């Protein structure tokens, strides 16, 4: 087992221990009720990805609370491995959360006898996943630099700001522009996907670089 694999496994074990079954069941019930309000999975997916974002940041809380950063040194897990492992942990959590939300939404909508538009919901899934992973990309260097206790308020600002920006933009931008952009996306899906993917990779790469730089300077 490589150091990277050990780190990711340790992250899942530490975060899992802090999640009670009661809270998970309550969260799932709220999500299901939310999904019953419409015929697409936008809010449902966004809700679960918000939970995934909290799940990812909980790793910072647990690590700091239990001084697990010291354990990493004892296990000879290098700081670059900690960075790569935490980002890999976040990616796995995001993928699992997205797939779970999408599949559960499909089941609920189908059971209700409503049509499930796979293309529309996959597009919504991609958009929501991009937004929340970018939120995490902003958060993680802050947590690595300041630690969870000092950074929690500052780091959670993007979680509130990003959706607010989207909501405000949707209210300001004329519907004809939005309609035209959606039409362009429909006609240039491959090009839009490539451009969006490259921008996403650039943002995440910058986030990893910043995390490595600030974390290398911390004392534990």
Layout of SSEs?
Blueprint: H1 3-18, H2 21-35, H3 42-65, H4 68-74, H5 79-111, H6 118-146, H7 148-172, H8 175-187, H9 189-215
Helix pairs in contact: 1-3, 1-5, 2-3, 3-5, 3-6, 5-6, 5-9, 6-7, 6-9
Question: What features would you describe in this structure?
Answer:
This protein has one domain. The mean pLDDT is 80. With 220 residues, the chain is an all-alpha fold. The chain has helices spanning 3-18, 21-35, 42-65, 68-74, 79-111, 118-146, 148-172, 175-187, 189-215. Helix 1 packs across helix 3, helix 3 runs parallel beside helix 6 (118-146) and helix 6 packs antiparallel against helix 7 (148-172).
Q: What is this structure, in a nutshell?
A:
This protein has 220 residues and is mostly helical. 86% of the residues lie in helices and 0% in strands.
Which descriptor suits the 3D outline?
A: globular
* Separation, N- and C-terminal Cα atoms: 26 Å
Low-confidence stretches: none
Number of helices: 9
Helix-and-strand structural type: mainly alpha
Tell me, rounded to a whole number, the average pLDDT. 80
Largest sheet: none
Instruction: Summarize the amount of helix as a percent range.
Output: over 70%
Strand element count:
0
Cα-based radius of gyration, to the nearest Å: 19 Å
- The figure for the number of domains is 1
What series of H and E elements makes up the topology?
HHHHHHHHH
Strand content: under 5%
What are the main properties of this structure?
9 helices, globular, mainly alpha
